[in-house]
Amino acid sequence: MAEKTIQAADDAAASFAPHRRRLMRIAYRMLGSMAAAEDIAQEAFLRWLGTDRDLVREPAAFLTRIVTRLCLDQLKSARVQRETYIGPWLPEPVVLPESELEMDDDLTGTLMLALERLSPLERAAFLLHDVFGLDFDEVASALNRDAAACRQLAARARGHVRAEKPRYQIAAGEGESIAAAFFAASRSGDVSALQAMLADAAIAYTDGGGKRSAALNPIYGADKITRFIAGIAAKEGAAASRFLRYAVIDGLPGFITRERDGLIQTTALEIEAGRITALYVVRNPDKLARLTAQLDS
User: Which pTM does this prediction carry?
Assistant: First the structure.
């Protein structure tokens, strides 16, 4: 009996493995947290383990339905939690190795924030159809809605997301060059250099989650952002932050630093026509735990 149970678990794990990465990507895009995505994937596996898999004709569709519905349930509680979140909320930064960059979808951190303004059903319909390529009959099955309703949900979402989609492609090496220059200027407090790199209507988000110091509201405009950054540099000094490496963070160029408190920080830059239009700075240690473990390993 024990041998049969072990064999069944092994069979379930083997048949689940080819779908795991895609399921993780769906869950992360829905929830903005890799830790939550891992929990969702594990719960999906447990349900897969308890399913009569011989009766499942399309495992990918079956597992997608499970993950989508689990994510929708979690989004209900997440919405309540984010209403009490201290300061701007940013998704957990995901740093992909160079070998995987082209394999990922084109949803950057910018678009993740756009998704936050959608209802959970709009978000799910858009992601499943526009990003992961499911037809509307499959989306309808996952959301337990009819196909026409799902088409409307995706269309509404698409309108919001298109308004946020970056309009400029970054040339190879340009992102790294601008990120390096921005780091140098921000740590030295070089006001002229910062203003030259920032678009007039730039916006900065800093996510400390109430656990590390950060601006409590988005900072609008190059002048205000420059004063904010220069003030930090004057207070802490250029040596307070150590550059660890350049990185592509949720599809955007940026860098990882170790700050004066010994904890890491990620900075992602949205760039248009050679100037920075948005900054996404994650300081919340809970959202950096996975990345810290990777760096320390």
Answer: 0.83
CATH 3.10.450.50 spans which residues of the chain?
A: 174-296
Q: Which residues pair with 269 in a beta bridge?
A: 279
Per the CB < 8 A criterion, the answer to whether 129 and 118 are in contact is no
What fold does the segment set 2-164 form as a domain? Butyryl-CoA Dehydrogenase, subunit A; domain 3 (1.20.140)
DSSP 8-state class, residue 102:
G
Look at residue 103 in the predicted model and tell me its pLDDT.
43
- The boundaries of every CATH 1.20.140.160 domain in the chain are 2-164
- Give phi and psi for 94, each to the nearest 5: -115, 120
pLDDT tens profile 184-227: 999 888 999 999 999 999 999 999 999 999 999 999 999 999 99
| Highest mean pLDDT: which range of 1-5, 80-84, 96-100, 178-182 | 178-182
> Cα–Cα distance between 203 and 278 in angstroms, integer?
5
Q: Does domain 174-296 sit in CATH 3.10.450.50? A: yes
At 257-276, the pLDDT tens digits run 999 889 999 999 999 889 99
Given the DSSP bridges, would you call strands 275-282 and 198-207 parallel, antiparallel or unpaired? Answer: parallel
Whether the Cβ atoms of residue 233 and residue 186 lie closer than 8 Å to each other:
yes
